[in-house]
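Worked example 3. Consider a protein that binds flavin-adenine dinucleotide.
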Amino acid sequence: MTGTVSYWLADAEDGRSPRAPLDGDRSADVVVVGGGFTGLWTAWELLRREPSLDVVVLEAETVGFGASGRNGGWCSPGLGVSVAELARRTSPETARWTVEVLRATVDEVGRLTAEAGLDIGFRKGGILRVARGPHEVPSMHATLDDLAALGLAGGCDVLSPSALAERVHVAGALGALWDPHGAVLHPGRLVRGLARLVEDAGGTVHEGTTVERVEPGAHPAVVTPQGRVRASTVVLATEAWLSQLPGWTREVLPVYSLVVLTEPVPDELADRIGWKGDECLSSHRATVDYLSRTPDGRILFGGRGAPYHFGSAIDPAYDTHEETHAMLRRMLVDWFPDLGDIRFDAAWGGALGMPRDFMPSMWHDPATGIAAAYGYTGQGVTTARLSGRVLTDLILDGETPLADLPMVGHRPRRWEPEPLRWLGARLVQRGLQAVDDRAERTGEPPTGRTLAERLIRH
Ligand SMILES: Cc1cc2nc3c(=O)[nH]c(=O)nc-3n(C[C@H](O)[C@H](O)[C@H](O)COP(=O)(O)OP(=O)(O)OC[C@H]3O[C@@H](n4cnc5c(N)ncnc54)[C@H](O)[C@@H]3O)c2cc1C
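Given these inputs, the predicted complex is written out as structure tokens:
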């Protein structure tokens, strides 16, 4: 799979990419910058609601080139902020409602794509957060308690080691937190399918068209090497790449998440590890790990850990970090020792957007003509659909019934200038790794009191 961005995109060729770039100046009702989930859900929703609108999507590379074509396939109700922290920052009622909206959005992704005839491999298999040693057991119980305190624990449960073993055999597992509200999907088919839906609804998608500058104002416009597009509204949907746009460089921190992918697991091995369902798996590590199964029976193992690059740099060279990829391959075998000889067919990575307070933003400013949604902290598959709905409400109606969600109208505090940003990011990355290493070595849960843990409390 060398030379392609990810297995997902290689497995989702539909003959439409590469599309023609923008060809000269033009005007539109709405111009969307970025052909990922956020931009395409927004474009499609606008067209579903107002079929006469002239909507143009400009994508620098090809549709799905960003995180949308590279992720772990988790369609979960998670946010960058935990439910307990959300309740502290807002109120228990707002936290409960936010989670309920996100849970409903998971189902909405499955329903809307099915109704539109897209096969995105949507399977609502739930989520198992596995306690991979005594140090992770308290976190498993605490998370269930936090959900219960908000009246959100219905259907969720702590599974005993034997109950977990009926679903999957994970080495050293001492149980798992079961959450039925998540699904797994094929992100490549979703992102490419959404682009087709936009076109079929009358929108235009240009690939190979990089927006170099955004001009806010009464008549906003975007400037590309191929021409200028004037529109009533400009939608910024570039997630990690927002940090590369002049004027927006400190809104999100581009953080790399990396992935390895096995061959289709042979039946005999699949029987031994027992993972036959469609659950998404993770542990309770501070440094984040995530596993899912592809429709053709491969296992995807992802994690953060690749270093932050000075000046918020994003470069295709950073999609591969051999040290991190080797670590992920070892971690998968540590989860499933039976896979010691499994072949790995692919490895890739991508940048996700981390806002200063880990809370996504969805807003529209009629005075500047700019609308934007970003800052999903690696949890954007579900939330980007919600962004599409909220931005459409705000652009077409000037208001949304979802206005009280904490991400609507939210503008995060900006990240520090360099070199502080680099020092802080590297300190947190190293600190969290040390927290996990210590917990695994001693069997003691993290204290939550290290500098790194306090800096990223969310
Ligand atoms: C490895 C990895 C694993 C992940 N796993 C999960 C997961 O399992 N579940 C989950 O919920 N989330 C996950 N995420 C996060 C999730 O994929 C993102 O939050 C989501 O895809 C963001 O969608 P988006 O459309 O906002 O941004 P993107 O998909 O990043 O799209 C932005 C697009 O804008 C384009 N662009 C950038 N600059 C310009 C410009 N100047 N002009 C024109 N176009 C431009 C880019 O090429 C890109 O295609 C993961 C992310 C990564 C990287």
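Take a moment to read the result before moving on. The radius of gyration is 21 Å. The mean pLDDT is 95.
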